[in-house]
Amino acid sequence: MEEMKKYILGDVCSRLSSGKGISSDEVFESGPYPVIGGNGLRGYSLRSNFSGECGVIGRQGAYCGNVRFFSGEAYMTEHAVVVVGNEKADTRYLTYLLSTMHLGNLSAQSAQPGLSVKTLAKQEILLPSLPEQKRRASILASLEDKIDLNNRINHNLEEQAQALYKSWFVDFEPFKGGKFVDSELGLIPEGWHVGTLSELGDIVAGGTPSKAKPEYYTNNGIAWLTPKDLSMKCYKFTSRGEIDITENGYKSSSAKLMPRGSVLFSSRAPIGYISIAKGAICTNQGFKSVVPRYAGTAYIYYWLCENTDAIEAQASGSTFKEASGSLMKSFPAIVPDKRVLDSFEEELCPILNEQEILEEEISHAEQIRDSLLPRLMSGELIMNC
User: Fold this and answer.
1) One domain, residues 209 and 121
2) 197 and 123 in one domain?
3) How is residue 260 annotated by DSSP?
4) Quick check: is 302 in a domain?
5) 50 with 109: CB under 8 angstroms?
6) Could you read off the pLDDT of 309-343 as tens digits, one per residue?
7) Which domain holds residue 217?
8) Within the chain, what is the greatest distance between any pair of CA atoms?
9) What is the pTM of this model?
C-alpha cells in the first residue's frame, strides 16, 4: 500500500472559495452557461465566472456538505464552494475524497449558518502521490461516465415521451382532421369524454404496520414504499423502499399489494412524487396510487405528471396538504377512445422499457461506485488499471 501523506485542505488547492451572487433576472430556462448553486443546476445565464474542472460543495440547507464534480464553463453562485487542486492534488480525486468526509457536519463550527470556507480550509486530509490519485480517480470516473451517459440517454427518451403525450392529449395533433366536441375541459375529439381519474384506473391507498412491532418489518419480505424512499432516489421505476414488511405486517395494516405497472403517486408530504412499480409493491398511507384498468401505465403516468399542480391546488389539510382518496377518484380527466389509449401505450412501451433498463444499469454502476469509493480513498483497496 502506498504511503499517504497528511495535508491541510487549503494547502493543496489552487482555489477554495465560494462563487458570486447573481440576480434572479439573470437566470433563465436556457442559455450558454449553467448556473450552479449548492443543490446543483439553478438555471442558465449569459455570463460565466468559472471554466475548467472543480469540485462543488453545497454551503447551506439540505445540500450542505454535498460534493460533486463539475467540468466545463459555468456561473458558480455564492451557495457553492469551488474546489480546485494544485500541483499536490488531482481535482477529481479531491472531489471524491471530500464526498466521503461528511462535510455538512462542519456547518455547526461556523459563526454563520452554513459551511464556512475558512473551516473547510483547515480540514486535515490524507493524500497518496499525484499519479496514484489520478489512477484511483480514473477507476471511479469510468463509472461516473457510464452513469452520466445513461442519464443523458434517459433524459432524451423522457423528452420524447413527454412530447408524444402533449401532442396526442394536450394539443390533439393526430386528431385535428376529425370532429371536435365541447366539454367542461374545452374542445376534445369526438368519441372522447370527460370522466374521472377512477375511470382510468383503480385508486389504491396504502397503510403502515405498527412501528411498535419490529417483527412486522424485514429486509427481505413484501416490497413497501414511503414518500421518503422516493425523495432519496429520483428513479422513474421503483422496485421497493428502504425496508420491506412481513406477511403478518401486511395483514395487520391497510396496505394493498399492487401489480407491476402501477403508478405510485405520493399524496402528502409532499404531493407529487411519481414512480412506476417494477414489480408487486405496497405503500404507506402517504400514497394514492393508480392501478391501470381502462388506460395503460404510460397514459396514467404522464396524466399525473401533467395534472400534479392542479391536484395539489385542490388538496386540503391544516398541518400539511393531502390529496384525499375522494379527491383523486373524482378528479376530472379526459377519457380518450380505448383504441387511442392502446395505440399510445404501444408507442410508449419501447421507450419505457429502455428507460427501465437504463435505470437498472445506473443503479448497478452507482452501487459499485459507492462500494469502491471509501475503499479507494482510504487506500484499503488496490486495483490495477
Assistant:
1) no
2) no
3) T
4) yes
5) no
6) 999 999 998 788 999 999 999 999 999 999 999 99
7) 193-335
8) 77
9) 0.84
